Structures are given as structure tokens and as C-alpha cells.
Amino acid sequence: MQPRTHMRSPYMEFAKLRSSAKYNLATSGVMSYPLAELPVRIEDLEINGPTVYGYAPLQERLGQYNGVPAECVVAAAGTSMANHLAMAASFNPGDEVLIEHPTYELIESTACYLGAKIRHFERRLEDGFCIDPTEVERQVTPLTKLIILTNLHNPSGAYTDGATMRAVGEIAQARGARVLVDEVYLETFYAKRPRPAFHFGDQFVVTSSLTKAFGLSGLRCGWVLASQELAERMWRINDLYAATPAHPAELLSVIALDHLNKIAARAKLLLAENRRSLNAFLDSRDDLIFYRPAEGTIVFPKLSSGDVEAFVRLLREKYETSMVPGCYFDMPQHFRIGIGGDPEMTRAGLSDSALRWTSIGARRKPTDVDATMIVCIISSVRI
Ligand SMILES: Cc1ncc(COP(=O)(O)O)c(C=O)c1O
User: Fold this and answer.
1) Mutate-to-test residue for ligand 1 from 31, 104, 159, highest number of ligand atoms within 8 A of CB
2) Distance between the two ends of the chain, CA-based, in angstroms?
3) pLDDT tens digits, residue range 115-150?
4) Dist. CA 105 → ligand 1 center (Å)
5) How far is the CA of 322 from the centre of ligand 1 (A)?
6) Model pTM score
7) What is the pLDDT of residues 248-268, one digit of tens each?
8) Under a CB-based contact definition with an 8 Å cutoff, are residues 72 and 202 in contact?
9) What is the whole-number distance in angstroms between the Cα of residue 364 and the centre of ligand 1?
10) Is there an atom of ligand 1 within 6 Å of 28 CB?
11) Which residues contact 350 (CB under 8 A, 6 or more apart)?
12) How many angstroms separate the CA atoms of 200 and 163, rounded?
């Protein structure tokens, strides 16, 4: 048997080992919701429970939340495991998978790990990172088994509307392929969240979680929405990985879903405040080229010139500020800013005076020295 080639995710290694900082603009999730604010008593929790293929009260709530029958819901450990299950159930090793570019790196690593042959369709900055169905049509082949995209788009935050989604669905259907839509950032629409793409037809498989929009990452409350037949296949595949979830997390997820409006209200306020800081920052720059998303927790500017990776590294190592370099999205001239953090921290991290760096980066040849000079400007402001 051939050994697997892709057995790691460079982005996850970055996120776990090299992204924490006092001014954390790398994280894409809303800051943690405190357990103390959930109306939970110790008597509400139990170690073991009647979970078989799902825990019925959680299945019901996830079904209600998404407007789908509980049989079409596969509870999973975060969107990460949901994506893994959705992919494992949708193609075999050697099959062709068409993925948006740029995309969330773990999607591509997982598809590679599962033995997919990867093709891409482009989402371009100059088009606001929108999905152009004619580009999808150009790149799809008779061998394509799965088309994968994120909505909102990671890294740009761009929203894909229902008409475009339907057009992609038709392209897939004509080839007998499916469309996997990772909607983890669509949750940031809260009460205005559009219906999951699952409702556009049987060829759609949707993944999401309470992780990013609600600050509940630790619960790992994720799910897949799929036809009943595909959902059953995923439950069986899940036996090979996770077998049974942690029951206390299932109980806490039920409580969280029962109080989601309250949790959402806090997240909405936080994001509104951070979006003001982000917009002030973007408005102050003439050396960044960017698409400005209206919703979500991320933005993906392009630096006109200069060495982004060296800058991001030095910024964190010496000046306690982190962002995600675009190399993790295969677009090295970009960087991703996340605005899910504490508002005061986000404001300080983004304040124009603290980030008076790009104009220097733009004028000089991209070297490590540039990056050092850039962060010196920051340090003179901040320290
Ligand atoms: C598009 C996308 N999907 C999934 C995930 C992981 O989500 P979860 O924490 O629910 O596993 C991320 C995390 O950054 C993401 O950006």
C-alpha cells in the first residue's frame, strides 16, 4: 500500500504554534463566550449519555436551527471534522475535486490526505473575490466528484448569494458531482443568516459550527447537512475516527443552542465595534488593495509591495502582534486580518499610528531589513 503523502496542515501548525500574541489579529473566531454566562448547573451535566449515531436532543436542535430533518444532520467535532466527513463520504482516492482558490488551507490538506486529485477555480481580488460560475464551468471536468467552496469566503469574507450558489449547483448536477459549502462564517449573519445551501438541492452538502460566530470553539459543536443517504454514510465513516463524542460537550451544546440569541447579541456588538476599527484602518491606507467585506470576521488585503511574510514574522516576534501571512492561502502578497477579538485589543492592534508600516515596505526592495524598519515604526508608537 502506498503511504499517504499529505499528513499535516501547515496552516494549523501556524495557528497553533505561531499565531498567539498580545495583539491577536490572526484569529478568525469571535472571542470566547464565558462558561459562567451560560445558564448551566452542574446537575445539567453528565459524563455518559445515550449517544448512538447522534444525541437526539442535539440532533433535534441542529435540525431546527437549520430547517432540515434531524436525519439529514451529522453532528461532528467542529466544522473541521464536518469537512473531513463530508469529503470522505463524497469521493474516493484518485477522484477529482475542484476547490476555490484561495481557500482555507485545511480544506485542501484534507482533500489531499483523502487522496483527491485537486483542480482549482479562481476567485479574484479585482472581482471582489466573487465566484464566477463560468470560471467554475471552465475548470470542472467529467471526472469531478466534488466542488468545494466557503461562504463567507475564507480568506476574503466575500458573500456568495443564492443565485450564484444555484448556478454552481447546476454545473455540479450536470456532471453527477456534489457541492460542499463550508458555511462556518455565514453564522455571523446571526438572525439574518440566509438558509443553508442544503436547501438548493440534493447535490449540496453543507458544513458549519458554533465555533467562529459565537465564541464557542471549545464545544466543538459542528455539523454536516446532507441527504439522508449521504448522512448515514458519514455516521459510519465517523465510527472510524471519533466513534463517540464527549457527552458533556453535547449537553453544553444543547444549552448553548437554547440560548443562542443571547450569545449572538454579544458577538454582534463585538463585531460591530471591531468593524468600525477595521474600516477606520482600511480608510487610512493607500498602500493596500482590498475587498471590504460587509460581514464576517476577516479581511484579506494585498500589500502593494514589500515582503509580507518577513513583516508578519517580525511583527509577532518583536512587537506582539499577529496576522496570517498570505502564503497560507497561496497568495503571499496578501495577509489576513481577523476582527473577532477583544474590541480594545483590536482597536489598538489596528490603530493607524500603530500600523504606519506599509508605505515604507512599499518603497523598498522586499528584504528582512525592510521588515525590521517597518516594525521599528510600530515600536516607536507602541512601546
Ligand atoms: C472556512 C473554515 N472552515 C472551518 C474552520 C474550522 O472550524 P471549526 O473550529 O468549527 O472546526 C475554519 C477555521 O478557521 C475555517 O476558516
Assistant:
1) 104
2) 56
3) 999 999 999 999 999 999 999 999 999 999 999 999
4) 10
5) 18
6) 0.94
7) 999 999 999 999 999 999 999
8) no
9) 36
10) yes
11) 25, 277, 278, 280, 281, 337, 339
12) 10
